[in-house]
Amino acid sequence: ARHILRKDGPFCTRLKVRLDYLPIVIRKIGILIHGRGHKDLYSVDSGKALVVVPRGIVHNDFNQYLNGELAESGELKPFYGLARRLLKEQSFEAEGLFMRQFSKKKHQVDSTGRGVILGVDEEFSWKLNHVNGHYFYGYAGKQIEPLDDRKVLKRFKSEMQEILQGQKVYLARLKRMEITAIADSFRVQTLMNANSAA
User: Fold this and answer.
1) Which among 160, 198, 196 is positioned nearest to 35, based on CA atoms?
2) What is the sign, positive or negative, of the torsion defined by CA atoms of 139, 61, 166, 100?
3) What pTM was computed for the model?
């Protein structure tokens, strides 16, 4: 097992590639939250949507995604319990590092070019799967130009600013009982199919 998990080995190389899928996992969860009509967690205006994506869901679904991709891989198949523990630790650590980068970075365009993480709130008290905080994910339909173009991104962020501010005010006004009810609707759920982020 130690030989398989060496840092320069093929398993760790594949793991690093899969860890980079985190923004896509956040995108998929955001689209599913919107699609399933969790109205407290999204705002829509002129074909653009802003979705609040709680970290507790991201933790759960990203861990499931990594397990679906890597736990049954040839090298680790004989060490199933080890794979699950390792991948859980790696998924939580990667998400924590990704969240912390937003203290310096203001946005993150996902690899589809049609959505962007516009900000985070590390402290919002969801207590969902023992995790607080959420991402603000903005996206639009295929009709927009790719957001990795600087001018398009600037315009998109400007258009989303009022929606983002409104969503923050809405969340701040929620009572504890309402926050708990929203969190309960997701508890111990996996929104994504484990392999649907690829």
Assistant:
1) 196
2) negative
3) 0.88
H helices within the chain, ranges in order? Answer: 10-19, 22-35, 55-66, 80-100, 150-173, 176-184
The predicted-structure confidence for 56-115, as pLDDT tens digits, reads as follows 999 999 999 998 888 877 677 777 688 888 889 999 999 999 999 987 878 999 988 889
Where b means 16+ CB within 10 Å and e means fewer, 187-198 reads eeeebbeeeebe
Cβ neighbours, 10 Å, residue 157: 16
What is the Cα Rg of the chain in Å? Answer: 17
Whole-number Å distance between alpha carbons of 102 and 97 = 9
- What residues contact residue 142 under an 8 Å CB cut-off, 6+ apart? 114
Q: Is 136 helix (H, G, I), strand (E, B) or coil?
A: strand
Eight-state DSSP code of residue 69? I
